[in-house]
Amino acid sequence: MGNSYAGQLRSTRFEEALHSSIEASLRSSSLEPRPVFSQLYLEAEQQLSALEGGSRADNEEEEEEGDGALEPSCPPNPYQMHPPPEGCCTTDGFCQAGKDLRLVSIGSEPIDVPAGFLLVGAKAPSLPGHLLVCAVDRRFLPDDSGHNALLGFSGNCVGCGKKGFCYFTEFSNHINLKLTTQPKKQKHLKCYLVRNAQGALTQGPLICWKGSEFRGRQTPAGPGSSSLCPPPDSSAPPAAFSSEPSPGTNPSAPRGAQPAGPGSDPPSLPAAAGPAVFNGKDSPQQQQQLAKGKLPAGPRPSALGIFSNSGPPKKRHRGWSPESPSAADGGYPQGGGNRAKYESAGVACVPPVGLVGPASVTFPVVASGEPVSVPDNLLKICKAKPVIFKGHGNFPYLCGNLNDVVVSPLLYTCYQNSQSISRAYEQYGAPAMQPISEEMQLLLTVYYLVQLAADQVPLMEDLEQIFLRSWRESHLTEIRQYQPAPPQPCPPAPGPAAPVTSAQLPWLAGLAASSCNDSVHIIECAYSLAEGLAEMFRLLVEGRLAKTNYVVIICACRSAAIDSCIAVTGKYQARVLSESLLTPAEYQKEVSYALVTGKVDSLGAFFSSLCPEGDIDILLDKFHQEHQGRVSSSPTAASVTKAMSLDVGGVPACASSRREPPRIRPFQLAVAQKLLSHVCSIADSSTQNLDLGSFEKVDFLICIPPSEVTYQQTLFHVWHSGVLLELGLDKEHVTRQRAEQYVLKLDAEAQARFKVFLQNSFQNPHTLFVLIHDHAHWDLVSSAVHNLYSPGDPSVGLVDRLLNCREVKEAPNIVTLHVTSFPYALQTQHTLISPYNEIHWPAAYSAGADLYPEDRKYFGLSEFIESTLSGHSLPLLRYDSSFEAMVTALGKRFPRLHSAVIRTFVLVQHYAAAMMAVRGLSQMKNYTSVETLEITQNLLNAPQQCPCGHGLMVLLRVPCSPLAAVAYERLAHVRARLALEQRFEIILGSPSSGLTVGKHFVKQLKVWQNIEDAEWRPQTYLELEGLPCILIFSGMDPHGESLPRSLRYCDLRLINSSCLVRTALEQELGLAAYFVSSEGPLEKGPRGEGLESDAEKPSSTDNEDEELVTEGSAAEKRSPVKRERSGSRDSASSGRSSKASGSALGGETSAPPGGPPQGEQTRSPQPCGPSEDTQRLRAGQGPASALSRHSPGPAPQTSQRSVQVAVPSPRRLPAAGASSSPAGRAAALVGQASPCSLAKARRQPPVVFLPKLVYDMVTSTDGSGLPKAASLLPAPSVVWASSFRPLLSKTMTSTEQSLYYRQWTAPRPGHMDYGNRAEGCVGGFHPRRLLLSGPPQIGKTGAYLQFLGILSRMLIRLTEVDVYDEEEINVDLREEAEWRYLQRSDPWPDLELFRKLPFDYTVHDPKYEDASLICSHHQSARGEDRAPPRKPEDLFVRRQTARMRLSKYAAHNTYHHCEQCHQYMGFHPRYQLYESTLHAFAFSYSMLGEEIQLHFIIPKSKEHHFVFSQPGGQLESMRLPLVTDQSHECIKSPTFTPTTGRHEHGLFNLYHAMDGASHLHVLVVKEYEMPVYKKYWPNHIMLVLPSIFNSAGVGAAHFLIKELSYHNLELERNRQEELGIKPQDIWPFIVISDDSCVMWNVVDVDGGGERSREFAWSERNVSLKHIMQHIEAAPNITHYALIGMRKWSSKAGGRAVREPFSRCHVHDFIVLNVDLTQNVQYNQNRFLCDDVDFNLRVHSAGLLLCRFNRFSVMKKQIAVGGHRSFHITAKVSDSPVAVVPAQYICAPDSKHPSLAAPAQLLLERFLQHHSHRFFPLSLRNHGHPVLLVDCYLNLGSQISVCYVSSRPHSLNVSCSDSTFSGLLLYLCDSFVGAGFLKKFHFLKGATLCVICQDRNSLRQTVVRLELEDEWQFRLRDEFQTANAKEDRPLFLLTGRHI
Known about the structure:
Distance between the termini: 117 Å
Low-confidence stretches: 1-14, 26-78, 212-367, 484-496, 631-652, 1080-1233, 1420-1425, 1432-1436
Number of strands: 51
Strand content: 5-15%
Largest sheet: 12 strands, mixed
Radius of gyration: 46 Å
């Protein structure tokens, strides 16, 4: 790339050294170039200072264009403008008459355009952001190809209307362009102007001037740079998306070129094309326009017209360049779901088709010099169209016979991309590193071409990787410095070396090509490429390039740079590359044209000439006449009849006929659970994009491609999965018609049905709709492309129009799930799917796979490839070398026929000949291949080996539908003439139509599948299982059709080998994907293992890929012939011609003899039935045997049954004559019951035949160890973002591959994601869109249907809760006497009646089942029958629960989101989220001896509930209502909810429970938990307890709530007394509610009379508002101290609700009168049973406790938080090991380990489980309870207690006649005196337990109460809780009654 030579050579031995190094490199197997050239020179001149051309901006003004064609380095000619006339307007953007010409100003105004004129946009240097509107005669503008523009100018001013400007200079002055350079229309007339849908004038396609291309080297080209395209003519669809040549067109003509010359084919359509755009770093205007998703390119007005040119250009118009830029050069169509066009096999760096931006540049190749004439009859002489790749520099014009050459810019694009520095290095701050020079690029290209084998096609991916490695070598130091990860391993680079100069290049290239036997020919030009091209054409015509595959033409005449191009002249390579340029539509058109015009007749005539006896049809007719009338009934029909008779006789016909019931496999269930997990993650995220809690049910719609078979197949899955019943979408029996509502075929009728789906989603906001897009890689065309270019074709862009419409994106109840095996096109830089929302099928070898044991092994692409490796048996992937040789030979003979036509006709001929050979015409074996013969023999013979007639399926893939129809007709004709109609079926499978199967075979299928429906017909390929058939599968792409397990051969020899993209290849190979029964593991087997087969099969075995025996002598069968790669072992001995045999043998790699077939191990064969041996013996044959592996030597083979038969039995081989005729073969098979082919097929995958090109692509590996196919462009609708990308790694997981494609691929402009410009940012992802990817045929449909089921179950589960459902305990202890409140119909209790009710001391709450029974004089203690105590860990687990559906009045946790309670939760429009204030509130309490400091957190939205000294000032009090207030929308009682450890799960959302009523709700939290509660509940008032209560229990919270509430009551009374309100009128009640109260119920009783024992009742769910307003409205309510309700139980009978009110204990949800209970306190130290203790204190104080029995509360089971949050562990232990309760108490001053728990908790837990140690006499002694004074403590369920209060005037049970077995004094105060205790009587030996705060208090209490008078104490009877001293343990003293 330098301007001069790089110095002298180091030595005179330069040539020898260079030649040696090149030769060594060529011998290397690696494609990696070695830096040998740079070492052969002296020190280089100094490096170029920057990237070549990198300093030049994208500035059109710097180019020199037109006839002058000056060198870019020359300065522009100075230009002096004429001064404007005086008095005229000189304002920029206005003409000299003062009229506005700016597009933005007059775009919407009507403009009169004369006929023949077009509106164009002119660019003024002084107005860079504007275009000026001009009217120009279209004759002076270029045509669609960029040519035929008349020199000169003719234009009008659209502003003032002045006409007749004949010179552009004059016109430019008139419109005030104010130019500083020579005015040229090519420079300043930039684009056409078109009207959009609104009628406004907008910028359209750029004008493609012939001279406006400038050197791309001088402009930094972005990745995937593209050419501009001529404006598309509206009279024909643009080629960029849908142009297809008519049958009269030669689509092989170079795109962008008009066929010219007298020898041209029929006139072609104009090469109209869609405009293109750079996919890299464009101008800011263009980026901006594209970012907005605008589509500035519209169709060109039809007035543009098309000029035909019948010959070379006239002299004046010498710029007619047929290869000038067009969309054909740079753009690749993509439309109608078809693949994009490729300029080369497997090319990745293809420039995208796109939308024209205002600052785009045209294709940067300058054409100069005289045109080169393409010789006439070039195709006829060369037998292939040469493909010319534009390289560096100028490319000459071509004229003449342009139909016979193809020109492509791909190599130029590859060169340009490889000169751009990777962004990966720029982002790490690397300095600008010099790119590879042009000379080195070309030299490396020559080096690459030299290494290509004769049957290889050049791939741009290979070349890009070579450039990348070479560049890395030369910049290894810099890369290592700035690369975060180590670079790919490459040899160490030498020091700085001189670059190759342009003068040395031709000589070095020639030297490199000298060792390739003229495969690469170098032509050096002296002046321009034109002479080199002319020389090449001359050599081609003279036949001197017959052995040359590539011609490299180099012109190094210019000092600054080189010109180059590379012509592919090899017949094979040129054909593949030229055909790869066709779009699928063009490919179909060309094939149809060949069929319609009869061009294929010559092919048929050639085949006829090959047959020695004349036309094959004559042979067929002769065979038909000879055998007519002698053909017996078909063996298959006989076998069916036999099978039916066997069934009747009670003998099973065939083990394989039993179809497996559909079931969910473990992997499918795992994937379904992963899908559910991702949906839950979306719901759990803070973005609130999915509110699962608001959905009640699931609905779905599955969108599939328009394939009838796929549609019926999906219907079958939906129908049989039971998902409709599970989702509740259908009742009872689901009909197939019902299932059709949930499967949408994306055809013309889809839009109407999809609209119904959207309406349903809108009308059912509480239903979650899952929109499943199956086969999601199909039809990713943008709807914008559809609107612009193919509005008449509704199928184009349908997926985008439906699934990406605004309604789907915005609907909060639609989740979109894309499902595909090939997700690559959905993993681009612009994808809508977040990488976190991708679900990949788990790999079988991944960690955790053993969690999902599978009984079948999946056989996919990697397993097929693995079977080709050494160490395996016969490969499952094969190619047919003889077939390929014949196709190649015919391709040379018929160069004008598309290879697809030739391949199809050859393959059909092979199948026809094979059928004839099997039917006895043995001479036809010479006209087929071993592979085809193998397929045909096994197809015909397999049904004879099964009593049922089960056979094999052969899949014949013919992508082109017209060719498929030809193949079907021909094979059906041959089958009919050979009388094989009853032996096997031929089925034509097309996506657009259903299946057609003959009546005879339908009858067979119905017998096998036990179907009695007379109208039944198979509708899916899966229903063809066991049917011997050839399925001709057509359609350009498979659409997800599944194939049956009887598929044995997958013949893909006709797939379009030019469509080398990863998706296309894997999609075709995915047809063979298979599940194999794991009875025989598919592992590498040792060489000598026996095989399951039968030695006596005369012509074929049932183990097809182990051996194939064709007609011949027994000696041939016995002779071991080396097996070929294709699996045939008789190719040399079959008697075919030597040429055919040679071609079959020569091109294949032989496998070692005796290799076991893939997956075959020594195992017992699958019998066809239990009576197999019996049947065989009846038939006169020996015992069943398996053919052992062939070994060298002529000895006959002996074999043995591997399991059943231990003694080998030699078998006599049949005579050769018996096997050489069909009759003899049939006789040998009579009665033989060898393993059924269907049973075998279930244990081995099918054999796949591929074209050689595809086979090499799939089986070869790149540098990372991956198959080469994996490094291809992933999908046709995407482009590589950069050629400087790393290779995919073999160790990459699916997730890492996704991230790789997301970084390195970008969608083409036709892709539906193209407009999503937010590259990878979170805002660009759609939140409710998921992608499920997995290998083909692995079970994705079953997985997502299972997902729908578990999603539905989860939603139901989300709307359900587990509530405690336990019967009340101790109900039998009540007496029937005066307990009853007899007024059953009273809505509220009558105060006087209620006072007369005795208090029920017994606790009935089932959570206290393990608590001590409280005795009273009313009850007879019958606790002996109580259940034994539970273990503490069982306490929670064993409690009974019931699952209940949440009602609309339920309380909710933080996971509930709905629109109604958004404001309640803090989303208030007036208040900012989390806006709250902290307020201190202090009051003194004498019992604590200090002032209590509490803190309120009050949100702004709740401040109205409080009184402040001034707004935002000191908190004074909480507002309380009046007793007399009556409001239906307000709850008077403040609700306090103490909580710990339940910030997420606590039920604090009371919005729905209160039915929207206004209420005051306060959460009472500990100080250390305050931040997390505030985070989850920002709009709730919080009462924060002092830090000293951080380790306290619920008693402390209750204590502070009550004391605070009473203090607040006093403050409110004082405040409102000043307003004239009496103190007693202030509402005194508060509610204390547990954080697990979820729903409330009311019982409705039908009285039936006051005294009647018969009454009916029902229970219903009501709101908490209803209950509270009912309670608050009770008369005399202020006389009640505590009000509560029942705990709900489904087992509650009429007895529980008969009495409406009870005077008893209340729990969980209480209404507390803080005024009446002023002197009764909760015990702030308590952890357990504090509510029972408080109830007893309240009752003993003479206050009323009332339980409303008709109300009940449901408590939710919450597994976290609450009292379970206290864990008792050792204080100093390293590991928090749980300690047993017996260790909670220890002796004082002992070395017992201290425990990290409050002393009170240790005491209560110890007494609960081990109190019998203190009260041995009390155990199960319920007649003599333990006396508890002033405090209730739980002593366990086996000990009863009696509670008494020491307070004066308290209500106590009468104890005068009771004798107690123990006394417990807990922290007794001064009210307990010696006299008080002397009232009670104790048994002798009764025990005493005194509990005090310290040892001193213990002694003082003993003395003060004179306990030593009646109780005996010992020193060892003193204990303490197991706390450290600093934790203030409690002390206990025990004694015995004297």
